[in-house]
Amino acid sequence: MKIYRVTALIERDMRKFLRSPAQMMASMVFPLLQLVVLGYAFGGHIKGVTVAVVDQDRTAESREVKEMIAGIRQGPQTFNVREYNSLPDAIDDLKSGFVRGVISIPHDFSRRVYQQDRPQIALVEDNTDQFISSELLERVQQMVDQMNAPDSGQGAERGQGERALTIRTIAWVPLPGDPDPEPSDRA
After folding, report:
1. Do 77 and 6 fall within a single domain?
2. 124, β-bridge pairs
3. How sure is the predictor about 157, in pLDDT bands with cuts at 50, 70 and 90?
4. How far is it, in rounded angstroms, from Cα 162 to Cα 155?
């Protein structure tokens, strides 16, 4: 008997709801509005994330990569770039949380550029925050795509054409006691 009363109440309220277009619109619009407002409040754009850059090659080609990274820093100010002299120091700061990612330019980078032997840069990231990790990977991939674009001027004169620069990402959650990842060993 109680179920019949509850069913009658539900039926009565549904009839009222379906007869009122204002209630139907409010029930659809307000939740969507709330999602949009909260989405912009908690997500969206990141600023001031520190990224380490380790240049083990120290040549004109590696400086070009560092200039592209500096362009990312000066553009939308998404990342602060900190240069390191050694990869272990940068990885230690990644483990400690001082940087959110490490971009490593290997020692044979310029040789591989000139030989057109698929030069690579390594990206080691702290993937505890997926939003920042994906944004970092997207920005670095944009930089690589821009560098791979055929040169219309000086690069064509040097006979470079397309470089086929690639990124090797190492998504890594730094936990105490984890061994340091070596970008040269992993694919």
Report:
1. no
2. 102, 170
3. very low
4. 9
- The encoded tokens of residue 63 equal 């400086």
Task: Measure Cα distances from 124 to 34, 42, 92, 168, 177 in Å.
Answer: 36, 25, 12, 8, 17
Contact of 111 with 62, CB cutoff 8 Å: no
Task: Inform me whether the pLDDT recorded for 28 exceeds 70.
Answer: yes
Asked whether residue 163 carries a pLDDT value surpassing 70, the answer given is no
Both tokens assigned to 136: 């970092």
Does the pLDDT value for residue 73 go beyond 50?
Answer: yes
Q: Which domain holds residue 102?
A: 49-172
Tell me the pLDDT of the chain averaged across its residues. 78
Neighbours of 162 (CB within 10 A): 12
Q: Are residues 130 and 73 in the same domain?
A: yes
- Specify the length of the chain in residues: 187
Phi, psi of 52 (to 5 degrees): -90, 140
